[in-house]
Write a structure and sequence with these properties.
This protein has 436 residues and is α/β, with parallel strands linked by helices. It has 15 helices and 14 strands. The chain has helices spanning 3-7, 24-32, 55-68, 81-90, 100-111, 115-141, 158-189, 205-212, 270-275, 281-284, 299-314, 333-342, 361-371, 386-398, 418-435, and strands at 9-16, 36-44, 72-75, 96-99, 193-199, 215-219, 245-251, 254-260, 288-294, 321-326, 351-352, 376-383, 400-406, 409-416. A seven-stranded mixed β-sheet has the order 6-7-8-5-9-10-11, with helices on both faces. Helix 11 (299-314) links the parallel strand 9 (288-294) and strand 10 (321-326).
Length: 436
């Protein structure tokens, strides 16, 4: 067995207060991070303040690690710094102890490709590490054994370094967000409606984006990371989307920009959600949000995810939200109807689709057109000049033109977003003034 392979061997551990511990998700997360899960230890009991698990169960965990030759223990729980240290003391030497959130950060680190995503991962890692650095300082003062087991090595100046780095990253993220806000406004002024895809990881947002899109537009951070692969991935893998991918789509008469964003994850601590909030800027500032859920999951799972999603979205979001029940190809029509009825209080009038098979996408497009802000109608009478021809061309590019009559004057009737109507009136006023 090679050393590289050994370092990827992991034993899963999970504690629940009651019932039976389900390790399906943590196994998926571990595999997404590249680990080979070779064993698991679970326990149903109240949390032990010192070890999280009971001491006897920690002994069983240590034996499983030694037996399987594992180098990592992954807890599907949040561990405190001292619990991590205590568990590490009971395991074979050089065995790492990581909890659910450290694992998620590893995955994020592997997937972050834009400068913004990389900064957000770094910020979350620093926020995770800060209380552990404080714990290591406390242990050092008590002259505990070197190595700090699951906590890693101790550096006396690390605490202050972390705080300084957090401040610097916040400043850079704020600068990126300002650039993105400016870009969103430019897109609106160009006549685009902004639609954001939100929902839990693996709900099928990236696949839906590909179905809706006509062509690739630009990633939110393309100028910061020019070698970025701007295609939206569509594969059964957790957290494939960390940055934002934006594509152009035609919905009825409208030109729409649809943005795929980072997926929500269950049971995330505040510090981790906070680190990735700027990624949700595309959701918070959209004209419409499509909340995508996997209809093949149980009603209980979907309900829990909808509640958490609404809590996240309603905090800062002002746009209407349409729930999309995706993956209808995996269930029959009766099950879709049953789940639609059961979830009606959280998802009134949802749209059921299969992004994978392209089923009901036209109905979704109609709903998007209906929910977006109404277009305004305008009729302009313009002098017959070369500059007028340029304005007519501009209106064709930014609005839905109904008629154009050319005679002694040019009369053009069209529908557009209010911002485009205002711009067209201003441009028309300049033309009329210049020809007077």
């Amino acid at each position: 067995m090679t050393a590289t392979h050994t370092t990827k061997r992991a034993v899963i551990a999970k504690r629940v207060d009651s019932g039976t511990a389900d390790t399906t998700e943590i196994r998926d997360l571990a595999r997404a991070a590249g680990y080979d899960v070779v064993g698991e230890v679970t326990q149903t009991r109240t949390e032990d303040p010192a070890y999280h698990l009971g001491e006897g169960k920690v002994t069983r965990l240590s034996n499983a690690v030694a037996r399987e030759g594992a180098a990592v223990v992954i807890f599907d729980n949040q561990l405190g710094p001292y619990q991590t240290y205590n568990i590490g003391n009971e395991l074979p030497e050089r065995v790492r102890v990581i909890d659910r959130f450290r694992l998620i950060l590893e995955i994020f680190g592997q997937r972050a490709r834009t400068r913004k995503a990389q900064l957000q991962v770094e910020l979350a890692e620093l926020r995770y590490e800060l209380p552990r650095a404080e714990a290591k300082a406390s242990l050092a003062k008590r002259d505990e054994r070197p190595g700090f087991m699951g906590l890693g090595e101790y550096d006396e100046s690390r605490e202050e370094d972390i705080k300084k780095q957090i401040s610097n990253i916040r400043d850079e993220l704020e600068s990126i967000e300002e650039t993105e806000r400016h870009r969103r406004e430019q897109r609106r002024e160009s006549g685009f409606d902004l639609v954001a895809l939100a929902g839990y990881t693996n709900a099928g947002k990236s696949t839906l984006l590909r179905r809706l899109a006509d062509d690739l537009d630009v990633d939110e951070n393309d100028d910061l990371h020019p070698d970025l692969d701007t295609t939206a991935e569509s594969e059964d893998r957790l957290f494939t989307t960390l940055g934002t991918t934006t594509r152009r789509a035609e919905v009825g008469k409208r030109e729409v920009l649809v943005t795929d964003t980072v997926g929500f994850i269950q049971d995330l601590p505040h510090w981790l959600v906070e680190s990735f909030k700027s990624t949700l800027g595309s959701v918070y500032h959209a004209d419409l949000v499509l909340l995508v859920v996997d209809v093949s999951e149980s009603v209980e799972e979907i309900r829990e995810k909808l509640v958490t999603s609404h809590d996240t979205l309603y905090e800062r979001n002002e746009a209407p939200i349409v729930t999309v029940l995706n993956k209808t190809d995996m269930v029959d029509d009766e099950e879709v109807r049953r789940k639609r009825d059961a979830l009606s209080s959280l998802a009134p009038n949802p749209v059921a689709v299969s992004a994978e098979q392209g089923l009901n996408i036209d109905d979704l497009a109609e709903r998007i057109d209906h929910e977006l802000p109404d277009y305004e109608r305008e009729r302009l009478v313009l002098p017959m000049t070369d500059d007028t021809m340029s304005l007519v061309s501009w209106i064709h590019d930014h609005a839905s033109v109904e008629t154009v009559d050319y005679g002694d004057q040019v009369v053009i009737e069209f529908e557009a977003r209010p911002a485009i109507i205002e711009q067209s009136r201003a441009k028309a006023g300049d033309l009329v003034g210049a020809s007077a």
